[in-house]
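Q: I'm building a small set of examples for a reading group on sequence design. Run inverse folding on the following structure and report the sequence directly after it, with nothing in between.
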């Protein structure tokens, strides 16, 4: 009833009303779940470009364990809906709710009287020098602030207060939203080996091939940023009625390692601090797989390997090969119970 009343009064641009929460008093407790996956890759690849040719082999293992947090509310819409058009409507709804809740907290428990008052509160944040740049949490808060101000411009304060105070328990309330958070636990282990041997030509006409060899290796717990903020790179929703898991763009860390490159008789060693690239095919497949999956599972398959294993697709010619993938994942609460969030 509340949702239908609000739907007729709220601005169409934000579509706030469908974001109905399940009834709870005094409010649902935060919960956490461990997010774990292991990706094992074994690949072989041949490259031919005129008189040039190489053979490549790789073995890579990515083992990731971290933890994500939910506010415990059951939402009626899936923040990671597989329909892109629906997702573009649902995300502003969520951002608006979060921004409005933040406004209330910073304004004595009530919404500001006008959009100008709301903007003044947000302006105080900016004056403190809170420039986001690549800070994930800061950028999310900025999106929430914009959505909240837009909501206040298009709706009365009374309607917005009614929306925030309503916790509808309709049959569609079924989605938990999970996010990373500062200080989340991270366990990360990556083993990476790649060897390419053959010939490459470096003259203008590519007619004088030289002996070529490239060796890349890593045995790494990830870079410093991954160790600190890995969980913040994941957004997950769960349909509690079907046990379906939705992951937004599964992030596979690129491990820092070394590259040993030999051309003819000259060898150079490069410290790859930015990270060694996982195969493009593996990144695409895992993201597509986790866009909608069971809460836990495993899968094995073989994919064509047509992108350069060393990430250098600028060379002309054709790549052929195969990539064996073994992938397992889990986002289930231990022993089937919700994990209480740490204070």
């Amino acid at each position: 009833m509340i949702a239908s009343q609000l739907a007729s009064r709220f601005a169409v641009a934000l579509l706030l009303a469908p974001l109905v929460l399940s009834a709870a008093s005094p409010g649902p407790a935060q919960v956490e779940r461990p997010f774990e996956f292991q990706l094992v890759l074994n690949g072989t690849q041949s490259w031919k470009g005129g008189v040039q040719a190489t053979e490549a082999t790789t073995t890579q293992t990515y083992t990731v364990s971290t933890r994500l947090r939910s506010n415990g509310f059951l939402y009626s819409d899936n923040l990671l809906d597989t329909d892109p058009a629906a997702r573009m409507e649902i995300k502003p709804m969520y951002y608006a709710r979060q921004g409005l809740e933040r406004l209330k907290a910073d304004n004595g428990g009530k919404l500001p009287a006008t959009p100008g008052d709301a903007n003044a509160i947000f302006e105080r944040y900016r004056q403190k020098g809170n420039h986001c740049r690549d800070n994930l949490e800061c950028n999310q808060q900025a999106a929430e602030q914009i959505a909240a101000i837009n909501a206040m411009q298009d709706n009365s304060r009374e309607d917005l207060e009614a929306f925030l105070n309503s916790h509808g328990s309709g049959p569609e309330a079924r989605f938990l939203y999970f996010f990373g958070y500062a200080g989340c636990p991270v366990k990360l282990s990556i083993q990476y080996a790649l060897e390419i041997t053959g010939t490459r030509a470096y003259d203008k006409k590519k007619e004088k091939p030289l002996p070529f060899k490239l060796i890349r290796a890593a045995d790494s717990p990830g870079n410093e940023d991954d160790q600190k903020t890995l969980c913040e790179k994941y957004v997950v929703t769960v349909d509690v009625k079907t046990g379906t898991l939705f992951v937004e763009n599964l992030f596979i860390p690129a491990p820092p390692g070394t590259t040993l490159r030999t051309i003819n008789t000259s060898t150079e060693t490069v410290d790859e601090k930015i990270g060694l690239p996982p195969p493009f095919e593996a990144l695409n497949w895992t993201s597509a797989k986790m866009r909608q999956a069971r809460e836990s599972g495993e899968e094995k398959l073989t994919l064509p390997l047509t992108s350069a294993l060393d990430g250098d697709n600028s060379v002309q010619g054709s790549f052929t090969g195969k990539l064996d993938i073994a992938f397992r994942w889990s986002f289930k609460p231990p022993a089937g119970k919700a994990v209480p969030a740490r204070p």
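The longest strand covers residues 31-49.
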